[in-house]
Design goal:
The chain has 507 residues and is α+β, with helices and mostly antiparallel strands. The chain is built from 14 helices and 21 strands. A hairpin with a 5-residue loop joins strand 1 and strand 2. It starts with 38 loop residues before the first strand and ends in a 17-residue tail after the last helix. It binds flavin-adenine dinucleotide.
Length: 507
Amino acid sequence: MSIDRRRFVNAALTAATGALVPVRYLSAQPAGNGAIPGEIAARSGSGRSVTLTASAVKDFRASLRGELLWAGESGYDSARQLWNGSFDRHPALIARCAGTADVIRAVQFARSHGLLTAVRGGGHSFSGQSECDGGLVVDLSPMKGIRVDPVRRQAAAQPGVLLGELDWETQAFGLATTLGTIPNTGIAGLTLGGGLGRLARKYGLACDNLRSADVVTADGRLLHASEQENPDLFWGLRGGGGNFGIVTRFDYLLHPVGPRVLAGDRIYTFRHARSVLTAVAELADHAPDEMYFDAYAIRAPNLALPGFAVGFEACYCGELREGERLLEPLKKLGKPLFDSLSAKTYLAAQGVGAKNPAYPAGRSYYTKSGFLVGVSTGLIDEIVRRSEDAPRAVRALDFWQGLGGAAGRVKPDATAFWNRQANYSLDLEAAWDGRSRNAVNVKAARALWSELEPFTRGYYTNLESGTDEQRLRTTYGDNYPRLVQLKDKYDPTNFFRLNANIKPASV
Ligand SMILES: Cc1cc2nc3c(=O)[nH]c(=O)nc-3n(C[C@H](O)[C@H](O)[C@H](O)COP(=O)(O)OP(=O)(O)OC[C@H]3O[C@@H](n4cnc5c(N)ncnc54)[C@H](O)[C@@H]3O)c2cc1C
């Protein structure tokens, strides 16, 4: 999903190529006055009240290299902010992990007190499940190390890395792996849930490019997972989300990409909606793997249009002249209102370093998603009809090729990510300011989605919270029973429950 061309200045890129250690990690000294309140009220995974004594919290704090924060402590309020402003949660404790040792200690502490536990990588989920009320947040965002091996075409990255940061480091060597489309998304949540993006049709999903991972399991052990070691766990990590443990290191395969690609958007007035969406779908269906399309109906306030506009984004990572030739048929759509489709660096196509945030932090966001096998005329008619009278909060409907091609040639049971037949993701995006209209806007977005959902089969767990077990079973298809077996083996008490949750058989 990448349907607003206003980009943002990426957060400072602090990770250093050549060293898999955080360049800047936090000292063990508390940020505030350090006084631990008498006791801290918390809650367990099942919602029970838990009281944490001052001495337990003190010992926990002393065991960490990173900070431990609680309500009233300086830094707590900024540390609990999520990108999605819909959520205003107050964890009992936030462990800002400086390394794997901190992650192990955080898991051990949470286990010994039965605490509800949330895991945060980049903190960029729509679902808000990387934050919790009354529990412990294992905050991995300080873990920013990246190491690129240009000779072996591999990169290792820690879980606090954002995808713009990884792209930045790998592009220094003309390399990249498939990541998502918005640079301030975390690589951790993205990769574990699948990882759809502009390179997926050429090189597979992000999870298909994962070569190995270090994982802290629910019993506080550190395991290495790869095709050779703990292959069952490795299978589950590639699409099964955060269900099986906390990943503290991701090892990716890299590919030659760029430095220049043909990429950008063309936006037209809404009266061309049907012809634009149809032309893009026809071209996309037969495009080579190097091509990526995202076709959308979108509110475009920066173009001073009152309602929706229609448009598409393309990204071609092959030979530039061939890309231009392939896009030639779209010239028949006439003169766009906005046109940024041109040769540019892959980093620019990924939005790294762009001036305005496409999705500014702190607004309230809601999304629905569903996988498509092809785009029918009926669906295009429905998108056009629903955009015409969409509720104010709905800002875009789009179908995009974050999968298909090489990602579609992976067998459905080769990784936990099952939806290999799908070649588009259909998404609805809603956004608004403040939290007072959360319920009204979510209800309106769901009502609109109910008209589109029948066209889809399965959904992308990274774009929704996945609380509906039946929907989750549909999306994981024949892989679901194997995921439950894995959950029984690695997390039988459902310690990692704040995710698109695969319930162990015993819970
Ligand atoms: C604006 C926007 C655009 C997006 N575009 C795309 C896109 O183009 N392609 C795509 O594939 N996805 C996209 N996504 C979805 C994105 O992949 C998910 O939101 C993903 O969860 C973000 O990862 P994060 O680490 O930032 O999330 P967080 O909020 O930190 O974590 C989300 C969940 O992931 C799990 N998790 C995080 N880190 C770890 C870890 N180290 N170990 C174990 N579990 C962990 C936890 O269950 C957590 O609840 C987009 C999301 C947004 C908000």
